[in-house]
Amino acid sequence: MNKSFTNINESSDIWYHGTPDVRELRKEGGFTSRTTTLDYIKDLEGYHQLQEKMKEARAEGDENAYFKYIDMVPKTRDVFKMRSPVFFTNNHTVAKTYANPSRAFDNQNSIEDVLKAQIRSNNGVTINATGDRFRFIDTSKVKRGFLNAGVNEKEFDLVLSRFNYYLSNKTGIKTDMIAALAEWFTFDYVDVNGVLDSHEGGSIKSTVRMVLDPTDINIISK
Question: What's the rounded Cα separation, in Å, for the pair 181 and 169?
Answer without folding.
Answer: 18
